[in-house]
Amino acid sequence: TFIHYDIIGLVYWMLARVEEIGRDDLDIHGRFPVTSSHAYKNGYLDRPVVDEWFHILGQVIKRQWPPIELKLDRASIELSHDVDRPFQYLFAPGQSIARQVVGDVLKRWDIGLAVRRCLTWHAVRKGSLQSDPYNTFDWIMDKSEKYGLRSTFYFICGRTNKAMDADYEIEHPEIRRLLRRIHERGHEIGLHPSYDTYLRPDLIRREFLRLKQVCEKEGIQQDAWGGRMHYLRFQVPTTMNALVEAGLDYDSSLGYADRAGFRCGTSISYQAFDVVAGVSLNLRIRPLIAMEASVFGLSNQGIDWVGGSTQVCRLQERCRASGGQISLLWHNSELSTQIARFSYQDLLRRINA
After folding, report:
1. pTM of the predicted model over 0.85
2. What is the phi/psi pair of residue 128, to 5°?
3. At residue 115, does pLDDT exceed 80?
């Protein structure tokens, strides 16, 4: 039996992200844009082509050596949540709320919204954190547990760019209580390295140390620690090496912010490889398949909730066929409305069917 193309070479090209090395056509966040990718240009971003190629290779192996038994891993679902803003009002200064209230009245012509905003801000600052719209953590964990899933929450532990990073400190008592509650309920905690760290292993290491120190004080221990870069800022292979030097076990950044699909051509985690140095790295890559903004929230796509859910379910079917894992990112702050929560629950129901 002959295969008239280099499957192993194509797999290497996709997994090592060779096409991203040395690019200068980056977006405003310094990211490799989906529109420059070979997969997008040629219409196969929504297919796990690496998994498909290995399926072909498996068929050839079975044909040549029938006694060999090939098994697929069990397909799974990974839910993750980047904690950019754990609370809408707890850490918001009064002048910021005042500007929003003025906007409610003068721009949005909604006096009721202005009043509700003032009352909610006051209640949260007085200790009623359950009133904060972004405090959706227990609700998220309830839904994950309903389907036997575990959520991972990635926390920012630095402020390398005041305009782009979080408004909280990981050492704050309410954040520490949140970390403890997540751990006690059996969910996972990870690092969300701040905006300007993606080329700086020293900064990622410093932020990871802050996270681990707080977790140790709260009695939180985990077998593995992973991360996802803020704004999905990632440069191959520099960021991979930075994560390794910082001591993280896995990364889940390799997806596109504005398109769902298979950036790495696979939904199966794999060992990172530095193609420039020609060495394997002590880091697992967990490809990110979809985030809420990539299917629901972008004006240039205009996909509604039904269409977006259908798209995610189609991606899930392709992950399931190859025994892969569909990795989904939903920010806690994007589940503050009833319609968003209803749509998220409906999506979980559909992909778990």
Report:
1. yes
2. -90, 75
3. no
